[in-house]
Amino acid sequence: MELIWMLVLGLLGAGVVAAELDGRGACAWWMGGIPGTPGHDGQPGRDGRGGRKGEKGDSGQPGVPGKRGEVGMSGNEGLPGYRGFPGYPGLKGEPGETAFDYRSAFSVGLVGPVKASGEPIRFAKLFYNEQRDYDELSGKFRCAVPGLYYFNYQLVARGQDTKVALYHGAKPVTFSLDQYQAGDLDQASGSVLLQLVGGDEVWLQVYGEEGPAGVYTENTADSTFTGFLLYPDLRANLLAKHRC
Ligand SMILES: [Ca+2]
What we know:
Elements: H1 2-21, H2 25-30, E1 105-109, E2 125-128, E3 134-135, E4 140-142, E5 147-157, E6 162-168, E7 171-178, E8 186-196, E9 201-206, E10 215-216, E11 224-232, H3 234-243
Antiparallel strand pairs: 1-2, 1-11, 3-4, 4-9, 5-8, 5-10, 5-11, 6-7, 6-9
The structure holds calcium ion (CA).
């Protein structure tokens, strides 16, 4: 019995070897079956490796402008700019109204002879004294507008030598002397510029020994005293105005 099985197995082994040798395989050796149904689709494969970088694309269309932002904080003050060119001269303005009367003038004359008395000569004949800066009672001019003043006097002398001084305050500043010739009408005259401040007083005064006559006047020979403001001291006048 065992021998029989050994023979069968031997024959089968020989057949297998023969089938492999002719290239059909073991199944071919048995018999060709009906082809099976196709298998199911397999699982999706894994992502492949990244490709190479492509070329740069074309520029896109400009976007729509965004909304206007809120007003920001003020920046720091900048540096001063360069000095500009001078402008054109303006048109000449209309004459303004002065806030201060800068006028001062007087012109007066004697009404009778004057002797040396140690007092101011009082000129009572008023040719002009609109501002009333000359006081005919005291014979003194009193400065109301500070500035530069011109004074002049033309005096007739008679009867004796006549010496006249123009006083600025208590100080004589100009002198005139006439040496009298008997029977004549002589003259003593003088002029001066004085810088005055408000309240300064100016007058004429005969000095020397008292005699039969001195400064004289008559219908055909006037003795006159004149003074007027030449230039006002604007700065002093403005200060005086502010003090008022
Ligand atoms: Ca004389």
